[in-house]
Amino acid sequence: MGAITRGTTNPNRLRRCDRWLTGPQAWRLRQTDRPPVAIDLGFGASPVTAVELHQRLRRVRADAQVVGLEIDLDRVRAALPLERPGLTFRHGGFEIPVPGQVEVVRAFNVLRQYDESQVRGAWDRVRERLAPRGLLVDGTCDEIGRLSSWIAVDHIGPISLTISVRLAGLEDPSIVAERLPKALIHRNVPGERIHQLLRDLGDAWAHASPHAAYGARQRFIVTARTLRDAGWPVLDGPHRWRLGELGVAWHAVAPRP
Predict the structure, then answer these.
(1) Does the global pTM surpass 0.85?
(2) Which GO terms describe its biological process (predicted)?
(3) What Rg, from alpha-carbon coordinates, does the chain have?
(4) Spatial contact of 21 and 137, defined as CB atoms under 8 Å apart
(5) Half-sphere exposure of residue 194, counting CA atoms within 13 Å on the CB side?
(6) What share of residues in the chain are helix, strand, coil (percent, to 5)?
(7) pLDDT (tens digit, 9 = 90+) per residue, 137-182?
(8) Helix axis angle, 216-229 to 193-207, nearest 10°
């Protein structure tokens, strides 16, 4: 189920999301009695992101199983020589054609190429395959992974939005607007919650400029605290903020009806 995407990818492009999956979300892999299963949905013209996901998840669970799924059969055939214990490649899409339930479905730069009206249907199809503690990650990033954002969706529905940016040389974190997931990118207009968040994020970054003397990490930490103090439901804490990562509860950015 789905459509063939452009397939562009690069090594280390999804490192920011993988760092989040193996950090604050690692408990989803640990709290299962069987080997956890993670899906790299729509891995693209090169299987490198699936290979990297396998390497990174195995640091959390040595028995983690990663399946790279592609709707383009030629891409699957090209990836088969890279199979190894715990890493396989299959032909498939949003139906997730693997046995049993899965702990993680990472779909990056996939739904961005669909219409906004198709997003919820894709989410719902994937949610049917999630384990009780499972998670769908619907994300978008730039070509080399310096700007990323993703929506976390569990078996009930969307729960959070996370943005992650490279702090070195960053002029304004609200630039992530150009890399929002499809569910939000067209909602970055006055009157929508995501527009207000990005505007407040840019303002908080500007107001934190005196802290730039202590480095971009300290400036971003102050920015995140400013947002939290202003009432935004900011998630995690300085240990994530110092990485250029900021999460907010979904209800704060959800599109208005």
Answers:
(1) yes
(2) methylation
(3) 18
(4) yes
(5) 26
(6) 40, 20, 40
(7) 999 999 999 999 999 999 999 999 999 999 999 999 999 999 999 9
(8) 130
